[in-house]
Specification:
Immunoglobulin-like; Membrane-bound Lytic Murein Transglycosylase D, Chain A; 5 helices
Length: 400
């Protein structure tokens, strides 16, 4: 099973077959990953100023500039070559060898170590040389053959051509020595009844200790060829607008189950959220490695997952202030409505007398022990609040 972390499409496409650094501790190579095996430009795949690329790319398939792509029958033998390049300022000895592919623990594609047993494409490849020594700024083509066994199964098979700097360990010295290596994918398709089929294997949202979440979709390749799939996880607020979208395009290898760990930071506002997982891929059996015809796309939709998040400290402070303001407004509205009901029930009608001096809003308010603004509001008077003889208005009841 391949566990894939938060995607970065640009990083995944860096340098064609990817840039890998392997570490050797006291002569034991640690596993390393090969990222981004599907870039399309033709420059050498390099790490530490050396690398390689296919020596004989085909004009009809741009993918062959960075990947060895062939359709071969059982028993076929294919002549090929890898161009090894030294762009450093020093003379280097570079190891060249073949290995099988393996599910990656972070990314889309990985290559096994030299010491691991070769059971697939790595065992089909025979290189003319196991190492080359190159002066600064030079290159050399290392020929190799791909001999497909007669019992090879229909579908896609993957392996790698590795270029790795040869580092001599000083005698009688312990410690760590670094050995850089790069990988080129070798994709061999055995013709027959090809099947391109993906299945959603699960989707969970897991809380993290820092308040964030891991969005963990899982897809299984039920077919016999690798498939480039567009994986999307869309997280939305409770009311429907989008919070964030995770995903990208990932190759899912034959017979492999891929899962991803997309990191969602703790939402600022908190509340209920829902995440939806979708996968889109080309179901055309004739589609090649990394090819999408766009005519036979299949869309899979995973389950919708609801989850609750508390707000951040700043979000909680803002929400608290807003709630307090709303509470104050509600109390003021309640008091105002209560006052209106009391006025409607208790104030009495008063008729403005003719010829009486000082009969205006202010004097009436003073006479009845209230404010002139309240008199104006209770009677819906309009500026300049002039009172006419015979006009009837509401005033507080006379004090006993």
């Amino acid at each position: 099973m391949r566990n894939q972390s938060t995607p970065n499409t640009a990083a995944l496409r860096l340098g064609g077959a990817g840039k890998i650094k392997a570490m050797r501790f006291l002569g034991i190579s640690l596993p390393v990953l090969f990222f981004a095996v599907f870039a399309s430009y033709a420059s050498a795949i390099e790490y530490g100023d050396f690398g390689g690329r296919p020596a004989y790319p085909r004009a009809d398939n741009p993918r062959t500039e960075s990947i060895f792509v062939h359709t071969l029958n059982p028993g076929d033998i294919k002549e090929e070559g890898v161009l090894v390049v030294n762009n450093s300022t020093a003379r280097k000895t570079i190891l060249v060898y073949a290995v099988d592919s393996t599910p990656a623990t972070d990314g889309a594609f990985a290559c096994e170590q030299l010491a691991e047993t070769k059971d697939d494409v790595g065992a089909w490849i025979t290189l003319a040389k196991s190492e080359v020594t190159l002066d600064s700024g030079t290159n050399e083509v290392v020929p190799f053959t791909i001999a497909v066994p007669g019992n090879a199964s229909v579908g896609e098979h993957n392996g790698c051509i590795i270029t790795q700097e040869k580092v001599e360990k000083p005698d009688n010295k312990s410690g760590v020595s670094l050995s850089f290596r790069t990988g080129l994918r070798v994709a061999i398709t055995i013709p027959g009844e090809l099947e391109r089929k993906l299945e959603i294997a699960g989707f969970v949202v897991t809380p993290r200790n820092d308040g964030g979440f891991l969005l963990q979709p899982k897809v299984k390749n039920l077919g016999n060829v690798s498939i480039d799939a567009d994986v999307r996880v869309v997280t939305k607020y409770f009311f429907g607008s989008t919070l964030i979208t995770h995903g990208g395009q990932y190759p899912i290898l034959r017979g492999d189950t891929s899962d991803w760990n997309f990191e969602l930071k703790k939402p600022f506002w908190g509340g209920w959220y829902r995440s939806v997982f979708t996968v889109e891929y080309d179901g055309n059996p004739e589609a090649g490695v990394g090819v999408k015809s766009g005519k036979n796309l299949t869309l899979l939709e995973g389950p919708m997952v609801w989850f609750f998040s508390t707000p951040t400290t700043a979000g909680m402070a803002i929400e608290g202030a807003v709630l307090l303001l709303i509470a104050i407004i509600l109390v003021l509205c309640w008091l105002s409505r209560r006052r209106k009901n009391w006025i409607k029930k208790n104030w009495v009608e008063y008729e403005i007398k003719s010829g009486e001096s000082g009969e205006d809003v202010k004097s009436l308010a003073e006479r009845f022990g209230t404010s002139w603004k309240l008199v104006v509001k209770a009677n819906n008077l309009q500026p300049p609040y002039a009172l006419q003889p015979g006009q009837k208005i509401k005033v507080p009841p006379a004090k006993k």
